[in-house]
Model the fold of this input.
Amino acid sequence: MSALALLADGSTRPPLSQVVVWLNDPQNWTGPNGLLFYLRQHVVYTVVAVVIALVIALPVGLIVGHTGRGAFLVGGLANGLRAVPSLGLVVLLVVWLSPKIHLLQTVPGVVDHHGALPYLIPVEIVLVLLAIPPILTNTYAGVQNVDPAARDAAKGMGMTGAQVIRKVELPCALPLIMSGLRSSVLQVIATATIAAFAPFLGGLGQFIVNGVQTINDPHTGYPAMVGAGLVVAALALVAEVSLIIVQRYVVSRGVSGRYRKTKAGVHAPDGSVVGMELAGV
Amino acid sequence: MSELWNYLRANQSDIARWTWTTVWLAGGALVAGLIIALPLGWLANRYRWTYPPLVTLAGLIYTIPSIVLFVTMPGVLGTKVLDPINVGVALTAYTVALMVRVVADGLSSVSGDTLAAAAAMGYTGRQRLFAVQLPISIPVIGAGLRVAAVSNVSLVSVASLVGVEQLGALFVRGSEQGALVPIVLGVIIVMVLAFAFDAVILIGVRLLTPWQRAVRAR
Done:
């Protein structure tokens, strides 16, 4: 442990091997304050934020893309939001907004701790604000990129505006929408670590917040910080891969161009070459 | 408003120091990241088989949350945990990850006719790269740099969670004291810095691409 004791003064390299030891200890996974407990919170906060962001950004992006109105606003909003420091906004809302929220009940599956809700709401606001721009801009761009001929054909067939959005523009824009959703999820998973800055919330960031206080402790210090960090990165990777798999199933093969390959290249069942420009990504 | 001003005056030496740390961490990482990304992007464009692995690797770096990189750096670099260098290196990694793709795409966006014209005028491969390809891709590279700069500035403040002192310290202070003033001030300064970086890059791109306006004026 002498190496760890010297860690704070900077003369010694913090041993990464300790991280492996820490991650291999089952106690650190299944214990009352173990990784699985905080991992579950982390996933729940992420899912809540992404679902809310999707409910807001998807319809707005579809409508702005379809009508072409408010495009300037979409671009400006996305750029402006990127400059806001998410940590600063969380702290700001926790100090200013949380005391004004008098909801002390628990929400089964989401908020287990009595009195945590006033802190969860500000954190979720920030996560939602973070998740909206990639979904919004990609949905908008995806609809904009739809082949005008396809849109005209749909109109010519007598589809209403809503039908064109639902049956033509949404399916064609889906590859770009999914890639926007993926970057949203990545950002939210990464940023949900700052939930631990607010009381009672936890999440995987808890190990990092605790670790800074007790950096030399082999159980809660540096090894726990890096170990939990690696779990966050692994979670991000798992989410990314899962969404890529989901994308394969939800994107129409007419759009993605994933047909059986023949010697001559990629062909649609009727023998015509699939238009790759529709794929978007 | 006056409270913000009073707080700024009362803590001006701390805030000036933190602002300076934020500027050199974000700016240094941006410059270092660009310098590393330029040859890598050239490689990905020149030898197309290197493009998929380089861009995939860059994408993987982007999946690592910033806080995790900040925390892991001391173990990798052999630095102390509170050393700001950890933050600088981590931000450099993000900048490289973002810029490799941008540089490669920028270089490949130069039209074949332009390259052929340069070759016909007797430019060697290297002259053509530096005098034709690179200047023409400046707007694309600049657009990528703006994204990297703005996200770098706001990422620096996350380093407060690992105890590195910069503008994020205002958030920590406000949170500890339950005081709004330092937090609001911190958010404002960080956003002003982000927009300042953005403006500098925008002006730089304009100065480096006079032909864009020459063509428009004709």
Q: What stands out?
A: The CA atoms of residues 40 and 203 of chain A lie 8 Å apart. Residues 2-250 of chain A form a domain with the MetI-like fold fold (CATH 1.10.3720.10).
